[in-house]
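Notebook B, p. 112. Complex prediction, attempt 2.
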Amino acid sequence: MPLLKIRNIESYYGPIMAIKGVSLDIEEGSIVTILGANGAGKTTILKTISGVLEPEKGTIEFQEERIDGVSPADIVRRGIVHVPEGREVFDDLTVRENLMMGSYLRKDRLGIKNDVEMVCDYFPILRERTNQLAGYMSGGEQQMLAMARALMARPKLMLLDEPSLGLSPALMNDIFLIVRRINEEQKTTILLVEQNARMALALAHFGYILDLGRFVMENTCEELKENEDVKEFYLGVKEATVRDTKRWKRKKKWR
Amino acid sequence: MVLVEFTQTVITGVSVGCIYALVALGLVILFKATEVFSFVHGEIMMLGAFIAFTCITFFHMSYILSFLAAVFITGLLGIGIERLTVRPLIGEPVFVIAILTIGLGYVFRAFVSMVPQWGTETWGFKTPFSDQYLRSGELVIAQDLVFIIVCTVLLILVLAAFFRFTKAGVALRATSQNQLAAVYMGIGVNKVFTLTWAITAALGGIAGVLVSPLTFVHMYMGLFVIKAFPAAVLGGFSSIPGAIVGGLIIGVAESLSGFYLPEGWKSVTPWIILILILLVRPQGLFGIQEKKKV
């Protein structure tokens, strides 16, 4: 039984249908990634899961309970936390206060205290910056804070939207390693949305490819990495053949 | 003698300034958290004063109890305003809610004029500090003024502690900074808005009770708020310390110009100061120039 089960959801941004009938299964303990170009609808899927957008059609089940149409706060309470694109930390709150907001719905003082230590072990920089305002931190530090803040809710499922956005390659690597550690050590299931396909495919177990609001391919990341289309359009690997010179003729097979 | 006069004028100014600060504080907190500019704040203040007046005069309750009753009822009123009138308009343009609050102001004034024993007359009530004075040498200060200053300082400390150390207070700041991120954390934005209205309306009620010995209780006392606008704008309209400093500046300037300058200056000085400061610092004293993210 998958932890999260999405069946045929359709979501709209105003009059525009941003996702057109998407189904998705996430097994407990896995890392699943959604790849796709700008505007493919990746963020919309995450927003629909976290309850910020309500799907027009379709169902979302988490731990075998329907969560479509449930309030965002209830969804956090059930164990799904969204780390939004662009970090969205609280600029004028200190690091400590940001973490406190991550555990907003929790009441177990002792557990919260332990978890502050736990996230500071993953992101040691936060321990040094406890009393600094989040707005004055660098982009990488803010990304770490955003993830730490989400972990403070003790999520069963973490939705990660473009964690590598605007980071240096070295920092990106750090973030991805920590994501893997969190997945292995905390048993947190992760749904990762990424533009950096190479990183995402290296990290995740299972991948979906989203194009114009529809999944066009789904497979294990091992298989996806070997797929010709994925190689060319997402990994930038080109074959040195005649086709190379007439690249404009090549079409994605799924269209 | 000159020095004594000056000191007394300044102290009067500070205590009136404290009230401006309290009113400006209410406006700024509400604006920061909910992006609503409330024109009904003055009427909430007036109702606070009327409630205290009624409790003292007709129910013969003690001053402290009447004070608390006024705070409690105005706080509830804030919750009612948010739930019944503001919440259905969430998502509408800002001016819609602003106009709504102007309308509510009229309704409350009309309500006061219709209540028997309130009506359109001017009332007053005795506080334990009425006609009591602190003396030191030639300096004579009314205890009412001292009480206003002490109350304001205490309130500001309590508010600061609330915003700094309690989960609800931090959540309120978080929501005012980034509403979407607050939703992602599971913070119920509606609850935060209700809490904000309750706090700011109670602050208005407190200001109303405190100012009563100076302005007396009548249906137009809400117009006092007009002079707290420059205090709020002076401070930058987004800064809580700014609202307090702005209130004090306006209060002291008004009091000094009333004493030393010809008649008529008193009412225009706050605005002159506002215009001068905005010419030099358009973002206000403590305001931060908003930079648009690209």
